[in-house]
Specification:
With 255 residues, the protein is an alpha+beta fold. 20% of the residues lie in helices and 28% in strands. 45% of the residues are buried.
Length: 255
């Protein structure tokens, strides 16, 4: 499927799975929607923490993408959304039209799913893709730079990579800085506050074999972690692993 076909299926409720491995070669986005009173501060916070929160498009008016997938409706073209009130996840839905108000500002944020095709093409198969699982994601003790009340810790995603390919994985992903870039930690999860790598905070656990090293990349679920810890009155995010698939090729963001 091309991205437009996939988004059409999503809008019809025919696709509600995680999007890892879908539409190879096209970038995928995290999404955060906040009331306007918080939007400017969040945008500044994201700029100060751009490795974890690389914003690629902001929709200040309405809910239609103009840059990444012109004409796509953010309200119903993401497989699953999380509704948060006072920092608490109260509902997961497949269409946020009933929750929309003109006061909402939408942020589309780079996602590490976007460099997965490059890893695979360079001889690094990904277990969660092969097994059609969600990627494993973890809260960490890595403090973000605080900006005007926005503060919290980074979330990371993990992919096991064969030992002899670890350097290659770092190099390949470093060419996608707007999709989180190179790993932030290699091989020592406890150093970033992950005490049990077999039990992720989000997504699905995957086996780490004896000849593999776990690599950890900054993750676009970070804003959801921040919103939760700050107890913001209202926010909408994508459900982790259920991304907005765009019309932009990953090659357009290769640096």
């Amino acid at each position: 499927m091309c991205p437009k076909e996939l988004r059409s299926k999503i809008a019809k409720g025919e696709f509600t799975r995680p999007t890892a491995g879908e539409c190879p070669g096209y970038i995928q986005m995290n999404m955060v929607a906040l009331p306007r009173e918080y939007a400017k501060r969040f945008e500044a916070f994201a700029k100060e923490n751009s490795k974890a929160i690389p914003v690629l498009e902001v929709i200040h008016e309405g809910h239609i993408s103009k840059v990444l997938a012109p004409g796509a409706d953010i309200l119903k073209e993401i497989p699953k959304y999380n509704i948060l009130r006072d920092g608490v996840l109260v509902e997961t839905v497949t269409d946020i039209t009933p929750f929309y108000t003109p006061d909402l500002v939408f942020f589309l944020i780079g996602c590490s799913f976007s460099f997965e095709n490059a890893l695979i093409e360079n001889g690094m198969p990904l277990r969660h893709v092969d097994q059609q699982k969600n990627v494993a994601m973890y809260r960490t003790n890595i403090k973000l730079k605080s900006v005007e009340g926005f503060e919290g810790e980074m979330v990371v995603s993990m992919r096991p990579i064969k030992k002899e390919k670890v350097a290659d994985a770092c190099v390949v992903t470093s060419h996608y800085p707007r999709m989180h870039g190179s790993p932030i930690q290699v091989g020592y999860p406890e150093m970033i506050g992950i005490n049990d790598v077999a039990h992720p905070d989000y997504g699905d656990a995957v086996e780490i074999k004896a000849d593999e090293i776990p690599l950890f990349w900054p993750c676009g679920v970070t804003p959801q972690n921040v919103i939760t810890s700050m107890k913001l009155p209202f926010a909408i995010t994508h459900s982790p692993g259920h991304m907005f698939v765009t019309d932009k090729k990953d090659s357009e963001y290769y640096e």
